[in-house]
Design goal:
single chain, 12 helices
Length: about 325
């Protein structure tokens, strides 16, 4: 954090000075996306700013508990002369708001930890070494405490921040979880983060439909050269197992966690002609490089991309061909 104090202070000065804000994040919401957005939204409310949380997508059911009384608007904001704060969004085109909201913003502030950040913002705090965007928001808020002498992180802010931290670190299993992540977790628990509620909702509340489709994916897992595992879900599978597209992302790590496998690939058909790829690696494959082949991005050990106008079979053939080059 010490290397970014100057940019954090620049962002804080701007947030204190300006009055109108919109907060958003990337398409296909996840724990870090929602946790960082809600924490920033509630922080701005606490310092008496006019702010709206805009996200034109569905919440995963496992994260609905975080919303509480927060008002989520879908591209129908009435705020004028606003600054858009894009959290956890490495690319301008993945910000989950209408194009008019993007174009009409006076300024865009980006807070993000993706290696593939495209540097689109007017003011940016991008640190690829942080575990999560939630950890970066935590850095901003603790710096606010230092500068303004106010204990700003309450339970309503601590809980979404802790959620984003545990989801992006795989409950502290992944290599991006370091000492600073554990210190942050301890701090948030002291501030009232509801750990038990988070764990129950995020990790212990899967539907029976989820386990049935998980069994289907595992039963049909493909091994390539004993180093690559590919799991597949078709749009028809979602209908057959009565589950939402956004509720199966947590299947992705199962593709990686097979003994001897270095790279896991999860292929999801959202609808005909729209296929999402998720990549996870263990030790040496750079998932960001693989995802870029398909116009995506992310982190070294976890990345993704969306492929349009191709069938699942066509996408799988292409991705396996490219993935072999990284093994």
């Amino acid at each position: 954090m010490k290397f970014f104090i100057e940019v954090i202070d620049e962002i804080l000065d701007y947030l204190v000075k300006e009055d109108n804000f919109m907060v958003s994040s990337h398409v296909n919401p996840d724990g870090d996306n929602i946790g960082s957005s809600l924490a920033m939204y509630r922080f701005l409310q606490k310092i008496d700013k006019n702010v709206e949380y805009v996200l034109d997508d569905e919440y995963p059911s496992s994260l609905e508990f975080l919303r509480d009384d927060s008002k989520l608007v879908s591209n129908k904001s009435e705020i004028k002369n606003y600054t858009l704060i894009a959290l956890d969004s490495g690319d301008y085109n993945r910000i989950c708001v209408d194009e008019n909201i993007l174009k009409n913003a006076n300024k865009i502030i980006c807070i993000d930890h993706h290696h593939t950040n495209s540097e689109y913002a007017d003011l940016a705090y991008v640190d690829v070494n942080e575990s999560s965007t939630c950890q970066m928001v935590f850095n901003i808020l603790t710096r606010f405490d230092e500068r303004f002498g106010e204990d700003i992180i309450c339970e309503k802010i601590a809980t979404p921040l802790y959620t984003g931290l545990v989801t992006d670190t795989g409950n502290f299993q992944y290599s991006n979880a370091d000492a600073s992540s554990l210190i942050m977790a301890s701090n948030l628990l002291d501030r009232g983060a509801k750990k038990e509620e988070i764990i129950e909702n995020v990790f212990q509340k899967n539907s029976i439909s989820y386990y049935r489709i998980l069994g289907h994916v595992l039963n049909n897992m493909e091994l390539v050269d004993n180093k690559i595992a590919v799991g597949t879900v078709y749009n028809k599978d979602l209908e057959d197992y009565d589950i939402k597209y956004d509720d199966i992302d947590s299947i992705t790590p199962y593709t990686r966690d097979i003994d001897g496998v270095e790279l896991g690939i999860f292929v999801k058909e959202k609808e005909p002609g729209v296929v999402k790829l998720s990549f996870r690696s263990k030790s040496y494959v750079d998932c960001t490089q693989l995802s870029r082949v398909f116009g995506g991005g992310g982190h070294i050990r976890a990345a993704g991309a969306t492929v349009l106008d191709k069938t699942v079979e066509q996408v799988k053939e292409l991705v396996i061909k490219e993935a072999r080059k990284f093994i």
